[in-house]
C-alpha cells in the first residue's frame, strides 16, 4: 500500500498496529491509518527537515500524560528536526503539545522505556537526555566526533549509538547520567560509512555503505558479517529488529529498486527478500505484528509504503523471494545448522519452530 502525501524524502517512520507516523524533508510529519489507507492528519511546526520520529506506546503515553496532568486518551509522537527542535505531538489530534529547543540539529532519537526519557542525537555528536513531562534536559555529553546517525535502545534501557565518525558506542543510564560502557572504533578503520544500528540481545547489527551488515557481539567481541546485497557494491541505510526477525534494507543500483531482506534471530538464517519495486532508495524501516502471524513492514525513502506478509501465505500480493547469494555463509554469519538447507526446508522449519513456541515472543 502506497501512502501518498509527502512532497520530499521520508527520513523516519514508526508503526504501531494500524497507526503509522512518518517524518520527511518537507518539514512535516504525517499520521496514517493503514486500515483506511489514508492520512489522518499532518503535523506542522518544524521549519526544516524532520529527521527522526518516535511513536510512544500507549503505556508510555499514559505515563507522560499523567506527569503532565493531561488526559491519557491521547497518543503521543516525538520528532527531532534540523531546526534543533524536539517536538511532542498529540498524534491523533494533529496538535503540537510541546516544543523544546536543543541548540543543535537533531539527527536521531531513542526512548528509555522505563522513564520514557528521550535520547537526542545531534549533528555535532552530542547526546542529550530529555524529560518530556518537564520539558527540560536531564543530561548532556559529547558522545561522538561526528553526527549521530542512529540510536537504538534495547529492552533493558541500554543505549547504542552510531556516528558518521565511524564509531559505535554502548551506554548505560546510571544516576541520571549517560555513561559509555563500550566503544567500537574499529569500524572507523574499515572506511565504510555507518548508517544505522539495531540490537537483539548481545548482538549489534550495523548497516553500512557495504555489501554486508556487520554483526558485533558486544558481550564476547565476536564479529560476523551477513551478506545483504546480491552484488559486491551496496549500501544498507536501515536495519530493524522485531522479535525474532532482522530486517535490513538493500538498494540495487543497477535496477533502482529497493528490497527488504529478512533473517531469523538469533542465528541469522536468511528467510527471504521482499522486493519493493518503484520505491527508490530506502532510508527508514519499521515493523509490527498485526492480526495473526502477519508482519507489517513500513518503508520510507523516495516513497512511503506499507507491506503485509504472512509466511504461511507467501504467494500473495507481496511474495517473498529467495536470493541464493544472500543465503551463502559469510565469515561465520549463520550457525552450522543452517548450512546446506534448502529454502523450502528452511522456511518450513522456521514456521514449525515458531508454531510450537509456548510463548508468543516471536513475530510469527
From TrEMBL:
Chain positions of WD repeats: 3-42, 141-172
InterPro entries: WD40/YVTN_repeat-like_dom_sf, WD40_repeat_dom_sf, WD40_rpt, WDR55/POC1
Keyword Zinc-finger: no
Presence of keyword DNA-binding: no
Pfam families: WD40
Record keywords: Repeat, WD repeat
Protein name: Putative wd40 domain protein
